[in-house]
Amino acid sequence: MGQRRRGRPRNGDVNATILAATLDLLVEYDDPDDITITAIVRRSGASRASLYRRWDGRDTLLAEALSAVDEAVEFHSTGEPVADILAFFSSRGNGGDRLQNLISKRHLLMARNPHLRESYDNGTMTARHRSLRAGLDILQVEGVLSSSVDSGALVDLFYGVQHLRAAMTPGGDPSEARLRAAIETVLRPYLRESHNS
């Protein structure tokens, strides 16, 4: 286990300190259901009252911490939408193994805990979701992707496939071939003729 910080964090840093402590514990604990408010308070050095002023409980805190897991990754349009979306999903930002560990824990917790899933779903769209949607909007403006398709629905479909495959695949990483097949199947009706393979 990591070293506990001494004293209380400065007021302006309390949110960040509590979220960082929560993420550290998520990485350390084999079973994230074992993480308690007491463990988070001890690790962060914040008071229980400070935590409850910001979050109404453990599930809400875990949902916010887990929504911050996905780093923003920029979508790059090369005019080849399937390849661009695959490149987007294969980029991991700077998180490496820690990021993969946290994403796996997020899937596990949301599968087990409907309240946590609801808190996460009702929270903000992650930075990666926003970036992918913006990228799909660019493909629509460029005329590569039909303007009649709902880019938000495509984001949901792509992430649904990725999350399902991640949950069902040993090691938590769907194969590129399966992800490519899903992306091609979903996009095919909405691509300009020159981009249909």
Task: Write the topology of this structure.
Blueprint: H1 14-28, H2 37-44, H3 48-54, H4 58-67, H5 81-90, H6 96-112, H7 114-121, H8 127-141, H9 151-168, H10 176-187
Short description:
Helix content is 61%, strand content 0%. The chain is mostly helical and 197 residues long.
Protein model, in words:
This protein is 61% helix and 0% strand. It has 197 residues and is an all-alpha fold. It folds into 2 domains: 44 residues, Orthogonal Bundle (Arc Repressor Mutant, subunit A); 125 residues, Tetracycline Repressor, domain 2 (Orthogonal Bundle), CATH 1.10.357. Helix 6 crosses helix 7.
Count of strand segments: 0
Query: What characterizes the major β-sheet?
Result: none
Q: Write the H/E string, N to C.
A: HHHHHHHHHH
Share of residues in strands = under 5%
Oligomer: single chain
Indicate the overall shape: elongated
Identify low-pLDDT runs: none
List key phrases describing it:
Tetracycline Repressor, domain 2; 197 residues; Arc Repressor Mutant, subunit A; 2 domains; 61% helix
